């Protein structure tokens, strides 16, 4: 069984950590790599990180250890990564909202993500969907939009917290389509979904994988999904309902301090590229309901800068008032 | 359904499942007994192991073992060194540590274990049998209902605190105010942070607990000095007698009911359950004046209530696919990694696995009892260590535990600050428990109240009296319950006073 082999190997790594005469290897990485995860335990990013760090050691020759540093909406962990020695032994696992939007919403950040961090790899992404209850009044997005237009500020939406995955696309919808909704915060995506299912709010958002079982059981209906094209049959894309094609994407990205030596960055990027071939990794991610749409750091950089411009516009339009 | 249950029972009775549950329980107890190392952190570190063993009847019971063991493990440092390792064991400190000081740590630990196991067992059985009917009710508890229960809890804590009501109220308000420090959850505006980033998330619960409960104990011990080179006790103390256990059975069952009910409402959690279980035990007792001075019933009331929360938290997860907190979110990940998708269809498509897991949960309690029983004499030996050695180690645990919780150097400042508050409060005879509960509940009450306002909109009359009549009922009943409880507590206070003067 491969799993047993993997576990024995992990155990031997732990033993190695405690052994007194560890052999120093000349080639990078010469010691375990710390991956700073600026989220609390138990969230989807924590789980994603636990999956890929279980496999990446095969391609790096060293384990990657997770260090959870939650706090200040991700700023604490990010700062720790920015201030770490840029020798490739400390990396950051973040997302596009923390990386590109928060620089406009939290004005006094002690760092500049674009100057201080370079992308190693985009691990995967999620595209958000708008959801409503099946036994509720809305069968299509058009019906919801019409109702929201007729009753500005009366329809409610549950979200998972300020300036993150569900909140930001909702703001973009309100701004681009000229709608007004009452935003009700919940502690995470699970409770936000529960609020919808209990009938406490009119609509919510979710990554389609997290509501797949509810759609199957006929409790939840997806009204629209992010992206320029349709991903579900008969469900309009965000582009069709009048939103910019980048709206509602959450990219999960591994970053390194900008001053990292180029050869080390190359080794890291190569390891992530090679890991994509591993069947067990693909399988575990699929079970988690996550895709493995890997993107090389250089390719992601282009998307990253484009997003930054979109978010600046959004943040300025909201924060000026 | 009965058939699926039998298939599930058959599937759960496997030797390797038992071995993995035992491993999980032991790991959980060890992690939980390390101050600052929360159950969530332990599970998050161990979750990849459950991913990699490709069998749901090993991986998931293993994590459930860690969960159960962790909640109980937190009571060990609470009883022995007055250091609640997790929020769940707040109320265990009150009487548990007093028993240790009297040289009876073994009694306290055993009572804690038996109460935990019994309540866990009954709440798991309840979950197993009632999972389908209960699932329909769970969604009915939204932010308005949670807010009203929090409000009721605050009032109950205020009127039942030890000592004069006014002192309890002062501490409660102070705690609520401490909870307001940090970012406002609705707009992100910083409050009372003096422009610093360190206070943006507010105070953390772990350094506050350790500072308020453990540092004053250490301070008192240091002040007293140690000229004789003695330990707290020479032996680990007596075992729990059957008569003592029987006397507390009513408390255990009462707390089990309270904990199970609280576990059903998403978002209330173990600290509130423990506190309510403790208060109910005190209120029902013939000798409430002994509470806080080493009453076994107090340990039973708190420990039974916090473990009873474990079973019901699985209901929204298994039937609706909704994780109510970080622990269940990790379990959700573990289920999905095994190719099982919790949600409305899980019971139909893989009912036998669900029941097998629930049955494994019930059976885990027997292993829990055995492992706990075997480790108690080891843990209890702490009291036989010389004070001059024990105190430095306790100090180290206080600081390392604080740092471990979220690797934030500022938390050390918080720890020392609350340590000083704790010492001052003890000197002036103020009870710190209302402050801690004010801190925990105040923050949650603000959040759920804000949610309620956002949900209600302008038509709040309709909202309060038509849509959310349950919330309104609790809010209306609160002052009545408060006054009645307060009057009862006052009679006890006067009786104690009269006896002391006589």
The percentage of residues in β strands of chain B lies in under 5%
* SS class of chain A: alpha/beta
Q: Residue ranges of chain A: pLDDT <50 for 5 or more in a row?
A: 13-25
- Low-pLDDT stretches of chain B: none
Distance between the termini of chain A: 60 Å
For the record, give the distance between the C-alpha atoms at the N and C termini of chain B, rounded to a whole number.
Answer: 64 Å
Number of domains of chain B: 1
How would you characterize the overall build of this protein?
- Chain A folds into 2 domains: 2-126 and 249-319, D-Maltodextrin-Binding Protein, domain 2 (3-Layer(aba) Sandwich); 129-225, Periplasmic binding protein-like II (D-Maltodextrin-Binding Protein, domain 2, 3-Layer(aba) Sandwich), CATH 3.40.190.10.
- In chain A, the strands form 2 sheets. In chain A, strands 2-1-3-10-4-11 form a 6-stranded mixed beta sheet, sandwiched between helices.
- Chain A is 44% helix and 19% strand.
- Chain A is an alpha/beta fold.
- Chain B is mostly helical and 502 residues long.
- Chain B contains 21 helices and 2 strands.
- Chain B has helices at 2-12, 15-33, 39-52, 56-73, 75-81, 90-101, 105-138, 143-160, 165-180, 205-224, 242-264, 270-284, 296-308, 314-320, 326-337, 346-380, 387-406, 410-427, 433-456, 460-467, 469-501, and strands at 182-183, 190-191.
- Classes of the chains: A alpha/beta (321), B mainly alpha (502).
- Chains A and B meet through helix 1, helix 2, strand 7, helix 8 and helix 9 of A and helix 3, helix 15 and helix 19 of B.
